[in-house]
Amino acid sequence: MLTSMAGRGRRAPVVWSPLTREHRPGAEVWVGVVTPGSELPERVDVIRTALEAAGHRLVEARPHADDTLLAVHDPGLVAHLAEVHDEWMAGDYVELVGQDRVVPYVFPTDAMLGGLPPRAPAAVHARAGQFGYDTMTLVGAGTWPAARAAVDCALTAVDLVRSGEPVAYALCRPPGHHVTRSAYGGSCYLNNAAVAAQALRDASHRRVAVVDLDAHHGNGTAAIFYERADVAYGSVHVDPGAGWFPHFVGFAEEVGRGEGEGATLNLPLPPGSGDGPWLESVDRLTGWVAGLGADALVVSLGVDAAADDPESPLLVTAAGYREAGNRLADLGLPSVVVQEGGYHLPSLGGLVAAYLEGHAG
Ligand SMILES: [Zn+2]
């Protein structure tokens, strides 16, 4: 145990990329109204500044091939995100309506299709709704390079853990945990945490646990691994049944299916919950992960459960995040920590630093 104790207390390396700043959503369309978005490039700056000040080493993300990305996502979604903004700009949306972001307006749901297979739509503004499931998640000129760079941040953090770092942190932006195999949404475009979990599996870890601390249920990660036993997904989040995103899923009754039965654990909390019930849920998640016999950990670190955050009604403190980091560190597993949400710029960097101080070595 001396070697693991010796590692305790060291600062996790921070993987980042300047490209992650290039995504500028411009706005969100919510209930038909254009509102200013909160998933801003400045999130990268405040987190990086706080972690540098806390003594973390910065590592620039290295480019990685698409294999792992294509193992968790439909190649059609990946190609769509890479190309759709160029196609949009080749149309006359800017001249006609002044819109230079890709915004869907019609969604080919199962209920709309009535059992018929969807045709590939000719119009770009229709195709936008084939792969995007909400109107809040707009695609601009810098979206693809930023989202792809965030994947490289996650994969570089996996490389660091494979080469012996006990914990590595990926400063991913845009976040990713709402992206399913074939659809993006919830201010997310590519699922960085799912890619990290798959990469750890490919690196011969037998069972990977994803623990999601973001205020919102990570419906994308949950869906990608719902029928798999080799990647488990556990989450504490504000109760979608109380009216919160992602609304339709994220309930306690969802436990996985087929081979994945028992490998999903959802712990919804009522709005207004603070450190006490939140940390009790974190304890349930760590006990569950230990019982599964996982040999590697991915943490989806959203810090939007914090009291100051404008996007959720949970009331967790920085001390709560530090303690959550401590308890997850007690699992003693090689850990890749992936940035998800967190939108209150004045406190964002300190919350991430507090978590990583807890989850040291
Ligand atoms: Zn969130």
Oligomer: single chain
**What structural category do the secondary elements indicate?**
alpha/beta
Number of helices: 13
Q: Low-confidence parts lasting 5 or more residues at pLDDT below 50? A: 1-7
Strand order within the widest beta sheet: 4-1-5-10-9-6-7-8
Q: How would you describe the overall organization of this protein?
A:
By secondary structure, this protein is an alpha/beta fold. 38% of the residues lie in helices and 13% in strands. The protein is built from 13 helices and ten strands. The protein has helices spanning 2-7, 42-53, 67-72, 75-90, 93-97, 110-113, 124-131, 143-162, 192-202, 219-224, 275-292, 318-329, 345-358; strands spanning 14-16, 28-30, 33-35, 58-60, 167-170, 208-212, 231-238, 264-269, 296-301, 335-339. It has an eight-stranded parallel β-sheet, sandwiched between helices. Helix 2 packs across helix 13, helix 8 (143-162) runs parallel beside helix 9 and helix 11 (275-292) runs parallel beside helix 12 (318-329). The longest helix is centred in the middle third of the chain and has 20 residues, at 143-162. Mean pLDDT is 96; it is low at 1-7. Bound molecules: zinc ion. Residues 214-216, 302, 304, 311, 341 line the site of zinc ion.
Short description:
With about 350 residues, the chain is of the alpha/beta class.
Descriptive labels:
361 residues; alpha/beta; two-stranded antiparallel sheet; 13 helices; 10 strands; 38% helix; 13% strand; disordered N terminus; binds zinc ion
